[in-house]
Amino acid sequence: MKRARGGLPINIWETISAFANAAGGCILLGIDEKDDFRISGVVDAGAQESQLSAICSEMEPPVRAQIYSVAIDDEIVVVCEVPQLPRDQRPCHKRSIGPWAGSRIRVSDGDRKLTDYEVSVLLSNRREQKHDLAPVPGASADDLNSELVNAFLRRIRDTRSDIFRRVDDERALMMLNVLTKQGDQAIPTLAGLLVFGLYPQTFEPQLDITFVVYPSSEAGLLGNSGERFTENRSIDGSIPFMVAECIRLLKRNMRRRSIVSGIFRTEEWEYPEEVLREALVNAIVHRDYSEFARGTQVQVEMYPDRLLIRNPGGLYGPVDVRSLGVTTVTSSRNKALLKILEDTPFGDGHMVCENRGTGIARMLLALTDAGMEPPSFADDIASFSAEFPNHTLLDEEALNWLGSLDGYPLTRAQMTALVMMRNGIALNNSSYRASTGVRDSRAASRDLRDLVDRRLIEQSGTRGTTVYRLIGTRAEEAGLFDRPAPGKAISSLGLTPNERAVLEFVRRAETSRARVEEATGLAYHQVVRALQSLRDKNLVQMNGKHRSRSTTWSAT
Fold it and tell me: What are phi and psi of 101, to 5 degrees?
């Protein structure tokens, strides 16, 4: 929102670039955000529309925004709807100054210049990546674990084309991109070294995993005994070894809990082992191995309330966060590495990865079977993260509530969805599948329709806008109007200190802006800015009109 009373802001191109490089957005000219979002209007709407159109045309690639004017309270407001740019066309930048200086991204309520690494990642998405095929200078075939290599070759010769049985080991390993020629010598590729190396960190010291266990819910907060962390390790070795060792350390720092599976109660780790393996392998396999990123490790951070796994380099290719676990479309910047791991034994009879695009779907199913909430994924260009809440969705209290419903059997997916709705979350077909691991949209529709027919949930909207919620009486019985909205821990949402303080108070009950000021001790403009940012992130909602004394705010 911009006042723009005297003309377009000189930096309006930055917001256009930022929106195009993210999920798109809407620019409103003629609304004064510094004056409680007062509708001030613009002087010459036609001229501003033309200027906006010209600026959009000066971007690279040109932005095809929808620009129009609307009348609000006898004032004219100019609207510019900026679409999301396809991943393989980013970064959107100001043509005259180039991508390195002219690319922006939206952060909270401001526009930030993309770092050189972020620009590099976006530009690299436009072409095929082959960093995993690069030869490793100084390494030789003697630096590979012969036992692992032989097991790999046996599987290849048992399951693949006859050609691998007709060539010698060196030739087979070159055909499989484990070795490559440098002059007259066969040396390991980066992929081959990472999978089969005796100690790959001799040549690439930072291509490992850091494992940290924090005593409190935020990094930096000291524990009861003044400790910064309870465990801090660097995990080196080949990929199969690092994954196995990281799982061992995670188990050492996990508790076992009692869960309900069908009619039986069983003991299980706080995080299912299958979930940990899939998440770790995904982080290692899909990370960025370019020269820019080889100084950054895969990071595993364990908190009392969540587990966070982060890797350098965001998503690659046509996939986005919303499609993860919903479709089997997959894309990787490290194709050779994936292909090798597909036939690399993990040690328990399984291969390290399957390379079929179903890893995240299996992860969701394992969490659903354990009665746990689905993870949240974040792609911020320079890194990708998966965050797993450390609490069960289908706990004893939730199971008792489910048992008080209509008495007819529920599938595990339906139980998960009902409890999520009980926690104040509205679902559609896509989010139902993403949360429960149900992959077929028709099966999801049948599940949701069954719950509607049984008068447990209600449907609103049609076609693409259809959402499902607990019906009013069920919501009241569940106590939704008597408790703060749950969801992710505030500490894990990536908010500013002011935003955290405001959200903490708003989550307790519906309240006014003045009450937020009084409770938090923040100034008027700080509260307004925090509320607007939280609203943009869909964490709070405004109930009423701008500048109305009766307007209140509540958690979404």
Answer: -100, -20
